[in-house]
């Protein structure tokens, strides 16, 4: 995965993620998976980027 890429369709500020674009507020992946850890999600905090990987 090329961290110098910045997918301008996926804005992201989670710089501790391994997939985060270097120096930019974007994801470097071509696509991500969004999901939820709740049975009935009602607010944005109920949703998760399931493509998140902790920076090694
Ligand atoms: S995988 Fe998710 S959390 Fe990680 S940089 Fe991309 S959008 Fe952000």
Task: Compile the SSE list and pairings.
Elements (H helix, E strand, L loop, with lengths): L6 E5 L14 E2 L6 E3 L10 E3 L7
Antiparallel strand pairs: 1-2, 3-4
Q: Tell me the fraction of residues in β-strands, as a range.
A: 15-25%
What is the rounded Rg? 12 Å
Count of extended strands: 4
- How many domains is the backbone divided into? 1
Report the helical percentage: under 10%
Characterization of the model:
The protein has a two-stranded antiparallel sheet. It has one domain. Helices cover 0% and strands 23% of the residues. It has no helices and 4 strands. The chain is elongated and about 35 Å long. By secondary structure, the chain is mainly beta. The structure holds iron/sulfur cluster. The site of iron/sulfur cluster has 12 residues, from loops.
What's this entry about, in short?
The protein has 56 residues and is mainly beta. It contains no helices and 4 strands.
Task: Describe this protein with a few key phrases.
two-stranded antiparallel sheet; mainly beta; binds iron/sulfur cluster; elongated; 56 residues; 4 strands; two-stranded antiparallel ribbon
């Amino acid at each position: 995965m090329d961290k110098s890429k910045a997918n301008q369709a996926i804005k992201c500020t989670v710089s501790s993620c391994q997939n985060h674009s270097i120096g930019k507020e974007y994801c470097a992946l071509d696509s991500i998976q969004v999901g939820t850890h709740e049975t009935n999600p009602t607010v944005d905090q109920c949703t998760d980027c399931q493509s998140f990987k902790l920076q090694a």
